Amino acid sequence: MGNAPGNKRIKNEPPRAWQRMLSGRRLDILDPSPMDIEIEDIAHGLARVSRWNGQTKGKFSLSVAQHSIIVEKLLHQNAPKLEQKWRLAALLHDAPEYVIGDMITPFKHTLGGSYRDIENRLEAAVHIRFGLPAALPEPISRSIKRADRMAAWLEATQLAGFSVEEALKIFVKPSGTPAAMRIRPMAPDEAATAFLRRFSILGGTKKPNQ
C-alpha cells in the first residue's frame, strides 16, 4: 500500500513502484511484467490521457487513444501491404502512457535517460503481452514514427493552435501528410471503445510469446 496516513512504510523498504489498475492488476512501473498488462486498462487509461497537455480546441481534449488510432490509420495508408501485426504495433506505440502519462517533447528531453528507460521497459512488456517482438525492427519503427509525425502535424495545425507557418518552424511535416484528414476529438468512452475495436480487428492477442 501507499504511504497514506496510518500506513507507515517499513524502514529501508523500497518505495512503492506499482500502480493498481481497474482490472485489479498491479503493474510494477519500474519492472513491468507482461502478465500484469491488460488491453482494457490500456484503452481506459489512454482515453483519459490528453495530447498537448489538454491545450486543444473542442468540447473534449484529444486523447492518446484517439491519437493512436490515427497513427495506425496513417501507417496503413502509407504502407497498405504492411503485415497486420505492425499495424497493431502502431496502435500500441504510445501504450506506456497509460501509466506514465503523455509529456510534451521538450519536457521528455529535459527528463533525459531515466524517463526513456522506463518507457522502453513498459513498451517491451506491452509488446510481449500482445504477441509482438519486444523491440520492433528498425524499418517498422521508422514507419510508425513517420505516421506519428504526420498525426502530430495534423493535430498541431487543426487543434493545438499552431499556424502552418509556426508549425513549419517546430515540427517535421512528412511528405504525403494528408491535408484532407480532419480530426474530431472523441469523448473518453468513445475513444476507449474505438481503440478496443481496432485492437480486436487487428488480431491483438493476450498471450505472451512463448
What is this structure, in a nutshell?
Helix content is 48%, strand content 3%. It is built from nine helices and two strands.
Provide the fold topology.
Blueprint: E1 18-20, E2 26-28, H1 39-46, H2 64-78, H3 84-91, H4 97-100, H5 105-111, H6 113-129, H7 138-158, H8 164-170, H9 188-201
Antiparallel strand pairs: 1-2
Notes on the protein architecture:
The protein has 9 helices and 2 strands; from the N terminus they run E-E-H-H-H-H-H-H-H-H-H. A hairpin with a 5-residue loop joins strand 1 (18-20) and strand 2 (26-28). It is mainly alpha-helical and 210 residues long. The chain is globular. The chain has helices spanning 39-46, 64-78, 84-91, 97-100, 105-111, 113-129, 138-158, 164-170, 188-201, and strands spanning 18-20, 26-28. The protein has a single domain (35-195), classed as Hypothetical protein af1432 (Orthogonal Bundle). It has a two-stranded antiparallel sheet with strand order 1-2. 48% of the residues lie in helices and 3% in strands.
